[in-house]
Write a structure and sequence with these properties.
The complex is a heterodimer of chains A (about 375) and B (about 375). Chain A is α+β, with helices and mostly antiparallel strands and about 375 residues long. Helices cover about 50% and strands about 15% of the residues of chain A. Chain A contains 13 helices and ten strands. In chain A, the strands form three sheets. In chain A, strands 1-4-5-8 form a four-stranded mixed beta sheet. In chain A, a hairpin with a 2-residue loop joins strand 9 and strand 10. The mean pLDDT of chain A is about 95. Chain B has ten helices and ten strands. With about 375 residues, chain B is α+β, with helices and mostly antiparallel strands. The relative contact order of chain B is 0.11. Chain B has a four-stranded mixed beta sheet with strand order 1-4-5-8, covered by helices on one side. A four-stranded antiparallel beta sheet of chain B has the order 2-3-7-6, with helices on one face. A two-stranded antiparallel sheet of chain B has the order 9-10. In chain B, about 50% of the residues lie in helices and about 15% in strands. The chains are: A alpha+beta (about 375), B alpha+beta (about 375). The interface between A and B is large, with 45 and 44 residues.
């Protein structure tokens, strides 16, 4: 066992942190974007220029060939720099949920067509999986794709799609053979502007409001057959397998940084805020909240790095990824509440962004499979019932 | 980075685990019920090389680093928390200061017998009026000719009633506070030294605990361990070992709870289904698994840092201990809940685990003390 992080990865993390702090944080910390539910496009472009939007893809497709660990560290660095959680969510949906399946399952032509555009940030990507009546119960998917000549005709709708209103390209799951249930679902690449494809209006949300979410609507949407991603009937199962482990490591990485930022802000605030004649950091009730923040930060870090390491080694990590996601999301919710508590009334108003952190944290135990789904996965991986 | 055990470590873990399951676990219920010290098990652990792991061969030690100690320690604590605790107090709390600060004569005299399990060691810090607040202790050692004369008392001393050797913490210059504390080795049978009767405890009942009394207790001057008046700092250097050790104690108990719960939930049926089928049950088990896996990683990290002499080890040892000990008591409570009425009955392992778990939050510094340490170490990092 050896827990040191390679120096080049630490240097990379540091450079991403400095970039985030200097170039992204100023806009990210304007509460107007959150109030207006506005995606910060200028930050997105900057991330693309810095090479952060296609980190794990091979260089020949415009990526950086980064390891899962390096990708995770980049996410952590951006979270710690104070980049809005909405932008980070869009980053994950784009780079991981849309880009990784194309990179891993796509044909050479598909990779050449989409990955460079995703990596540069010229295009925004998303994954269309969840439907109004089917979330983690993917076998309940109702969107269909019927082969007709050299194209597939898609009908149905997708719900809660991150980057829905802004996305240029989506990986979409649709049933191609209903009799085969979960193994009769194919994956398609659908571009914005395709006939019969539209998105619903932007959904108004509790948190991560700077990441646009909407419905995707397919009405006799005609997708060329070369846009089938992976094997027919089986593409979707592969997309799931691929994205879930990635999603549950890299996608939660910004939360680690967010947690450390919360710890830092809590300490700074508690040192300068005086009550009863002394800084509140002198009170045990505050001190011990800070201890819990630090403890959980290190716990979260260790468990997410482990999933990243397992993925880099190509060791199957479904259970570990689920446990990490479950742990991180539940901790985020509890700890963002503790940070807010330390800030008291100031935590409840928008100015300090602690309020936004509290709202943003709530998504973690819902998106990417609820905590309940994760518990089911963990239990089934260690017991028969 | 490497999160995996080596093949050798895995093999060692397996063979040690099977020894614990065969030789130690079967006695756990009895020694708990009757509050009997498992002397034979300690000898066995000595013979198996567990007690001496990480100590030089010349003192009866065998190769081993903090990580493998944690790996095997979990297996022992899982089999029997009492045995683990007494073994740790003897081979860890007593022996590590002797190794680190002892003279050649002291090491040769005490370590081989303790590491073989023939003799038992203990460390005496806590007093009736002073636990983690070490400076509040009253025990005093005064120089008289070529001897030290100790007066005072200690309490909650693991192995107190059964130990042969004790490292005793005492003021040698009370005025100087932390710069006036020294460590002394006291042997059983020394005039003026006596032990109280074993305390009747909630858990770890097979690991005897008692008061120690020093009434004009005279030990030869060569029994001073380490430097005079430097005991506070010497102690601080060994506390990290103890905290990681206590974290492993909680980890083993939690893992035992998980395994018991998994087995029971897959055997027992209710309403025509396995218990495990019900979400309320399998979600509890999923949480156990999650917290245990996180806690284990934190322990391995702290142990690895210790092996690297990382100055932040003290912080990570506290983090690991705080995390796993608090979750272990919750996990033990959930395990009892899953067993229902059976979980409440003596003779069921989870009933004992539930009682044993609580010590994890108290021994080697309470959770409150760990939080105080963590904040103190982190508040100026930002």
């Amino acid at each position: 066992m050896e827990f040191s992080i390679p120096k080049e990865d630490l240097d990379f993390k540091e450079s991403v942190y400095r970039f985030g702090l200097r170039d992204l944080a100023p806009a990210s910390q304007k509460i107007e974007y959150d109030d207006n539910e506005e995606f910060i496009l200028e930050n997105w472009k900057k991330m693309g220029n810095f090479g952060l939007l296609g980190l794990p893809y091979p260089e020949k497709y415009g990526g950086s060939g980064a390891s899962v660990l390096a990708t995770t560290l980049a996410g952590e660095a951006l979270g710690y720099a104070g980049v809005d959680a909405g932008l980070m969510l869009s980053w994950g949906a784009h780079m991981i949920l849309c880009g990784v399946p194309i990179w891993q399952l796509g044909t050479e032509a598909q990779k050449q067509k989409y990955l460079p555009k995703l990596a540069s940030g010229e295009w925004i990507g998303g994954l269309g999986l969840t439907e109004p009546n089917a979330g983690s119960d993917a076998a309940g998917i109702q969107t269909t794709a019927v082969k007709k000549g050299d194209r597939y005709i898609l009908n149905g709708s997708k719900m809660f799609i991150t980057n829905g209103p802004t996305g240029n390209v989506f990986v979409v799951a649709a049933v191609t053979d209903k009799s085969k249930k979960a193994f009769g679902i194919s994956a398609f690449i659908v571009e914005k502007g395709t006939k019969g494809f539209s998105h619903g209006k932007k959904l108004s949300k509790l948190g991560v409001r700077t990441s646009p979410t909407s419905e995707l609507i397919f009405e006799d949407c005609e997708v060329p057959e070369e846009n089938l991603l992976g094997d027919p009937d089986f593409g979707f199962a592969n997309v799931i397998k691929l994205t879930l482990e990635w999603e549950r490591s890299c996608l939660v990485a910004p939360a680690i940084g967010g947690l450390e930022l919360g710890l830092k802000k809590a300490i700074e605030y508690a040192k300068q805020r005086k009550q009863f004649g002394r800084p509140i950091i002198k009170f045990q009730a505050v001190r011990h909240k800070i201890a819990d923040l630090k403890m959980n930060l290190e716990a979260v870090r260790q468990i997410v790095y482990k999933v990243a390491w397992l993925k880099d080694k190509d060791i199957p990590a479904m259970m570990e990824a689920s446990a990490a996601k479950l742990f991180v999301s539940e901790i985020m919710e509890k700890m963002s509440s503790e940070v807010l508590q330390i800030f008291g009334g100031y935590g409840f108003i928008k100015e300090y962004l602690v309020e936004r952190g509290y709202r943003d944290s709530r998504l973690a135990s819902i998106g990417g499979g609820t905590s309940e789904i994760q518990r089911g996965i963990i239990a089934r991986s260690i017991m028969n019932f | 980075m490497d999160f995996e055990l080596t093949d050798d470590q895995k093999k060692l873990k397996e063979s040690f685990a099977s020894m614990c399951a065969k030789e130690i676990a079967p006695r756990a219920e009895f020694i708990d019920r009757e509050a009997v010290f498992p002397k034979e098990s300690i000898r066995l652990l000595g013979k198996a090389g567990f007690l001496g792991m990480g100590f030089p061969e010349e003192y009866g030690g065998s190769p081993g680093d903090p990580i493998i100690k944690a790996v095997l320690g979990e297996e022992l604590a899982k089999a029997c928390a009492s045995t683990y605790l007494s073994a740790g107090a003897s081979a860890g709390l007593f022996s590590i200061p002797v190794l680190k600060f002892g003279t050649q004569d002291q090491k040769k005299k005490y370590l081989p017998d303790v590491l073989s399990g023939e003799k038992i060691g203990a460390l005496a810090i806590t007093e009736p009026g002073a636990g983690s607040d070490v400076l509040g202790m009253k025990t005093h050692a005064g120089k008289k000719g070529k001897s030290w004369v100790i007066n005072g008392s200690k309490t909650f001393i693991t192995n107190g009633p059964v130990a042969d050797y004790y490292v005793v913490v005492a003021y040698t210059d009370k005025e100087k506070k932390r710069d006036g504390i020294s460590l002394l080795i006291v042997e059983k049978g020394t005039k003026g030294f006596s032990t109280g009767k074993p305390f009747d405890k909630l858990g770890v009942r097979g690991s005897p605990t008692s008061d120690l009394f020093f009434d004009e207790c005279e030990v030869p001057e060569e029994n001073l361990l380490g430097e005079i008046n430097n005991g506070f700092f010497e102690l601080a250097q060994t506390l990290t070992n103890g905290r990681i050790g206590m974290a492993v104690y909680s980890l083993g108990i939690a893992q035992a709870c998980l395994e018991e719960s998994m087995n029971y939930a897959q055997e027992r049926t209710a309403f025509g289904k396995k218990l495990a089928y019900f979400q309320d049950i399998h979600f509890k088990i999923a949480d156990m698994k999650m917290y245990i896996d996180v806690g284990r990683e934190l322990i391995y990290k702290a142990a690895w840092m210790l092996s690297q002499d990382d100055p932040q080890t003290i912080l990570f040892a506290s983090i690991a201990k705080l995390f796993i000990s608090e979750h272990a008591t919750e996990i033990a409570s959930d395990a009892v809940q899953i067993f229902g009425g059976y979980g409440f009955m003596k003779g069921y392992k989870v009933e004992r685990l539930y009682r044993d778990a609580k010590l994890g939050e108290i021994g080697e510094g309470t959770s409150e003390i760990q939080r105080a340490i963590i904040t103190k170490l982190v508040e100026d990092q930002y």
